[in-house]
Design goal:
Length: 284
């Protein structure tokens, strides 16, 4: 049960840690793995590395879905044909190793002692903190880190949706229910993982009067968490709320707008009409 209502709700994603100077992007993680040779003999790692080399960028969660489907497609050539018949148990083991390595890498990043100072020097971080430092704050945290709690905002409740570094291989790292996977690979669904913590998520959004998003682009992989709420806030007669969306440059704004347009059911104009909506460029 919910113990109290929080008027202010902050949603943070990886962009928050990046603004602190932490190298928490998937490409940085993959480069670290490559230097450590932790997964050189793993087919999953070899696949992800090949994608990173081709694209110079990688969304590992999206690639997990593609990789799973590729393994189940006997007509898809991949290294050697017999290697394409990897059973679910091997992928499960490699996925757990990947999760453990990700947590190890993030702990190394967080243990560096200069990110707090970097955050306090960041204009957009200071602007964010000025909006949330005088009241109890409920944080919906899509990161595995606890960096937000180091900034002394009053009475922070840190709600990790996908688990935290202390969960190790049990962090939620996978694909959405809308992805079409085989039964053997069902462990890749985020909802499969008991660590997934979405308790009272909709109620938190409904209770809040002021909702802030920082470093989180509302990507399609997480639409299921928000679509009902944003559609409701785009409907005449909804309770008027204040929204602050921090974004990074023109490309960041374009992507954020597109995600919101989808989440509101193509009713972005109504969403703006029925709420107090502000977009804030986080680039200094």
């Amino acid at each position: 049960m919910r113990n109290m209502q929080y008027d202010k709700l902050l949603v943070i994603g990886n962009g928050f840690d990046l603004a602190l100077g932490l190298k928490t992007s998937y490409p940085d993680f993959m480069k670290w793995l490559s230097n450590k040779h932790y997964m050189d003999d793993a087919y999953l790692y070899r696949y992800l590395s090949s994608k990173l080399n081709q694209q110079r960028w990688i969304d590992i969660e999206n690639e997990l879905c593609i990789y799973s489907k590729m393994l189940c497609n006997s007509h898809e050539p991949y290294w050697k044909k017999q290697e394409n018949k990897m059973i679910g148990s091997k992928l499960r083991r490699e996925h757990k190793v990947l999760c453990n390595n990700l947590c190890e890498y993030l702990k190394i990043q967080v243990d560096k002692n200069d990110w707090l100072e970097t955050g306090l020097e960041n204009q957009s971080i200071r602007q964010l903190l000025s909006k949330v430092d005088k009241e109890p704050l409920y944080v919906i945290n899509f990161n595995y880190t606890d960096t937000i709690t180091s900034f002394r905002v009053t009475k922070v409740v840190n709600h990790h949706i996908h688990g935290s570094l202390s969960d190790g291989e049990n962090i939620v790292f996978g694909v959405e229910d809308s992805s079409n996977l085989t039964k053997e690979h069902s462990f890749l669904y985020k909802s499969y993982n008991p660590t997934l913590n979405v308790d009272h998520l909709n109620e938190r959004f409904e209770d809040a009067k002021h909702i802030l998003f920082y470093g989180y682009s509302l990507g399609q992989a997480d639409h299921s968490y928000f679509e009902d709420f944003f559609k409701e806030q785009s409907t005449k007669g909804c309770e008027r709320k204040k929204f602050d969306f921090f974004y990074y440059g023109q490309e960041g704004y374009d992507d954020l707008f597109w995600q919101l347009r989808t989440l509101t059911g193509n009713r972005m104009a109504q969403f703006k009409q029925f709420n107090d909506v502000a977009f804030i460029n986080a680039i200094q």
